[in-house]
Design brief:
alpha/beta; four-stranded antiparallel beta sheet
Length: 385
């Protein structure tokens, strides 16, 4: 059977169809649901987190203000501002800090989200200049901060670093890195798109982690399953200035109550369960590695091992096309879709999968994961034979 990357849209459609069936998965992301399902869920549950009889929001009033106040409290910050996207929130944050420090240089990891996924937005839109700290797939060290060789206004830390495999430093490493930036008179900003699930690894509450930084951005549509949106939290004066720039960037949206209500629901329903997901992700990752090896793929790797959050990478020596076709075939025949997301090629016949464990994954025992992984590996090895 000949595979082609041109067939990916078809595989994507088949996978989406499976996700709308009773198939078992390790994760069932909300954005894969139908419009009807998302609207019905919001209408059914939103009244449990906010008074739906109050006037609707206008340009950030009402429910949006309630969300901002809630998140500022969770992060231990003076104030917070809601943004339609994290890309906008972080550009505004770093632009505001550059004006205050007088230095437009931002030190960050080359795998940080703005460097890989935002079309050079820091430079093209906000007039910022990025300085890359290390090429290692981990957060920068204090030594690398000091060895940069030129001053910078802000240090940006993505916690966890998604494109290195959702990795986190130890608490001691993190505090030492922050201290190094302070010694150079730089401010610290945390890209906390997935900060919510980092508390388990650090063994610290959210406000203590966020307290290391001058400002923090958090997302609502990733781990919290919200519709969209983000919050920038920090000193009241910074947040007030950020609101001005939010307007200038086109982020002063007329009404945002669906996003705000879904974010409040995420804080109520998802946030308390994240430690449970993280704990089970370690069980699932170990079982996956064992099952793949037992199925004849000893080269298979899970990283980091054990996972730092409820997300991790699985590496296999096959093309994305072969891996995705095998996953779909297994799901159709067994009712279990072990790998939900696309596989990403990293070289000839080397690919990785970003695996997430959420409430759907809690239903899998270690033995069930191990057996499904063993079956997946055997199907791969005999594929096309």
């Amino acid at each position: 059977m000949n595979d082609s990357a041109n067939d990916r849209p078809t595989r994507h459609a088949r996978r989406l169809e499976l996700l709308r069936s009773p198939v078992r998965t390790l994760t069932r992301p909300g954005f894969r649901s139908t419009l009807r399902e998302r609207l019905e869920d919001l209408a059914k549950e939103a009244g449990s987190v906010h008074d739906l009889d109050e006037p609707s929001d206008i340009y950030g009033s009402g429910v949006v203000e309630a969300l901002e106040h809630r998140v500022a409290g969770l992060l231990g910050k003076d104030a917070a501002a809601f943004f339609p996207s994290g890309t906008m929130a972080q550009q505004v944050a770093l632009r505001c800090w550059a004006g205050r420090t007088g230095n437009r240089a931002v030190a960050l990891h080359p795998l940080a989200h703005p460097e890989l996924h935002e079309r050079n937005a820091f430079a093209e839109v906000s007039g910022l200049r990025t300085l890359r700290l290390t090429n290692e797939p981990r957060l920068p060290t204090p030594e690398e901060i000091h060895e940069l060789g030129e001053p910078f206004g802000a240090l940006m830390l993505e916690l966890p670093l998604r494109d290195a495999g959702f990795v986190l430093p130890t608490w001691e490493e993190l505090t030492a890195t922050v201290r190094a930036a302070r010694e150079l008179d730089a401010v610290v900003h945390i890209d906390g798109a997935r900060l919510w699930e980092s508390t388990v690894h650090f063994g610290r509450p959210l406000d203590e982690i966020a307290g290391l930084a001058d400002s923090v951005y958090v997302s609502f549509y990733k781990s919290l399953n919200g519709l969209s949106g983000a919050v920038l939290a920090g000193p009241a004066s910074l947040v007030e200035e950020a609101r001005v720039w939010r307007h200038r960037y086109g982020g002063q949206v007329f009404q945002q109550f669906p996003a705000a209500l879904s974010a409040l629901l995420g804080l109520e329903r998802k946030l308390p369960r994240l430690p449970e997901y993280v704990a089970h992700a370690k069980v699932v990752a170990a079982a996956l590695a064992e099952g793949l090896a037992e199925g004849g793929l000893p080269w298979a790797r899970v990283s980091p091992e054990p996972p730092h959050t409820h997300q991790f990478r699985v590496w296999l020596p096959y093309s994305p096309e072969a891996l995705e076709e095998t996953a779909l075939a297994q799901a159709r025949e067994t009712g279990g879709l072990l790998f939900v997301a696309d596989w990403t090629a990293q070289g000839p016949d080397i690919s990785y999968h970003e695996t997430t464990v959420d409430s759907a994954g809690l239903e899998w025992t270690a033995e069930e994961v191990r057996e499904a992984a063993r079956d997946f590996a055997e199907r791969l090895r005999t594929r096309g034979a």
